[in-house]
Amino acid sequence: MSDAPKRKLRVATTSLAGCFGCHMSVLDIDERLFDLLEHVEFDRSPITDIKHCGPCDVGLVEGGICNAENIHVLREFRKHCKVLVAVGACAVTGGLPAQRNHIDLGACLQEVYVTEPSVRNGCIPNDPELPLLFDKVHALHEVVHIDYFLPGCPPPADAIWKFLTDLLAGRTPHLGHGLIHYD
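Below the sequence we write its predicted structure tokens.
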């Protein structure tokens, strides 16, 4: 019998067009994070401040796709993650950012940056360093293959905990009644 420690799963996270609330829910796991760290090693995430994803077992992505940079980040992330999880309403359906999908992008930018009453002498940002905005916000599965969907806005810490512990135990994640809600 081997006394070698069991290999920890490598987990990475990233955030695209969203509010970062799903990452906050991961942190809301609170002291259970210490239990989780016995089984996983974080790669790219706000916990590690690593900016580029290496080879990982599980990738958690929050936020939808609203610009060219989001596409690039998501495709690179997919290449490095064996299992990819869309976390939260924005990743699963486009969420709140997709509310602009029924409005002309030019009109939306005009309203936000120029005609909004609180803006004086505003102008629409036009810097080549800014990523190209798309006319529509898209869910992740429209761009890459997603293995699991974890809905919610944001998914509560208990749902994320249950999902991750199911995955770690080799079970298909199952979220029973009461674990998913939209605040």
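The beta strands are 9-15, 40-42, 56-62, 65-67, 81-87, 133-138, 148-150.
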